# Entry
Amino acid sequence: MRALPFAQPGRFYRGNLHTHSTRSDGTLEPEAVVGLYRDAGYDFLSLTDHFLPGERFGKDGVAFIDVTDTTAFDSDGFVTIPGAEIHGPALRNGEPWHFVVVGLPLDFPRPNDAETGPEVARRAHEAGAFVSVAHPAWYALTLEDVRPVLPVCHAIETYNHACLGVDRADGWYFLDELLGEGARLTAVAADDAHFKHPLGLTRDALGGWVHVRSESLAPDALLAALKAGAFYSSTGPELRDVRFEGDELVVTSSPVETSRVSRPHASRSPSGGNSASSASPSATTGVAGPGPTRSGSRGSDRSRRPDPVGEISSSVDIWSSGCC
# Structure
């Protein structure tokens, strides 16, 4: 927690890590998708079409939907990072896996018939990609499913804007459980836009994003920062600074209605022992404007409980509710 990105060299770049086009099951051509995000003020995009046979989406003559090369659509001040949503058998409920992988080589090998979803994710990780577990609530992913693949995952998709319409957008509960077991993962907010919502073309777009701290807008630099955890996710508020001053956690943001600092709730590890995280309650502070919020020794950042495994982890999530 003390290695925060806000004081690191560079600046924050805003981007979306999960979006589809007509190459799989979206309704906009890749160039139009890139243009939409560029015109909306984003700095980068990863187009993550489904890495599946073309016949799954009625693509006659397309044997397989390989990684989309969008570099031709890059422009001054806007870049794309090759990616895909990869799949394979299978969860305990029989559903195929969904991983969003950003930074894939364009020639990433197609899966073979015997390869499982986690095995494809492992190959993506070994190829240098940033691997996140997509929309856990949407397809009833369980902790038992995901625990074995955590070594090759960087993040959990904790907000999926497209799933908001079916009340399955939230993945924080899932990450909270894993952090409570001692996992070290980051949180991604993303769109998963398909641009075919009945109430509007962009109804499932421009709703969740990441701010990545990097010394440049080069795709390799952004990818390295993502894997290092030098980013934060948002659906509205902008974090200007988060830092420790002694025992206080100081947060400076754009105007918000409320700001809350919380830790993962306590849980049992898979082996049955107590986890090394805090069971302390959340601290809630009202914020009237862009000034700092302070959470000190009376807030949850410093609360502790007796724990037989020793030192309690200091993993802290910052939750803000936007007003503007």
Observations:
- DSSP finds five helices and 16 strands in the chain.
- The chain has two domains: 5-234, 239-322.
- The CA atoms of residues 262 and 282 lie 5 Å apart.
